[in-house]
Amino acid sequence: MKHIPENDSIRQDLHGAHLSREGFMGDDARSFETIIADDALALSSIDVTPRKIADKMEELTTAGMEGQGGRIPTGEYLVEVEEFMGQFNCPFRDARVPKRNTLAVDKKGRTYTWSDLSIHLIRAHGFFQGEGSTYRLSPVALARFLGLAE
Hints:
The chain is an alpha+beta fold. The protein has one domain (5-145). The chain has helices at 8-15, 32-44, 50-64, 116-125, 139-145; strands at 72-74, 77-89, 96-106, 111-115. The protein has a four-stranded antiparallel sheet. Strand 3 and strand 4 (111-115) form a beta hairpin. The chain is globular and about 45 Å long.
């Protein structure tokens, strides 16, 4: 992929601990542009968009906020939302989002955890983070978990 100098500061924030203690890339050797392209290709094979995934994640987070820190039933899931003081800055420098984590458990006992920043990164940038990152979400597996694909 062609090197874009304007992305150097974004690249630095994604790898470094400036915005996140662990960064967003994990041990993934690919560029963030390649990760985004690879994940988009994987999602196109199941006809799901990052926006659809982010919308469903946000729907569950919003519903879970009514549980005030406890797990509540929300459709096919039990959802628990944990809120913290402050906000996260997007490493792409286009948003600040609340520090909030959502845990969703489906009827098979499978769990996924995401942050509001993950929702933003997926919706606005198609970025599910790098392999090995604490908050990496496999796009196809997540789409299936959310009932958006078989």
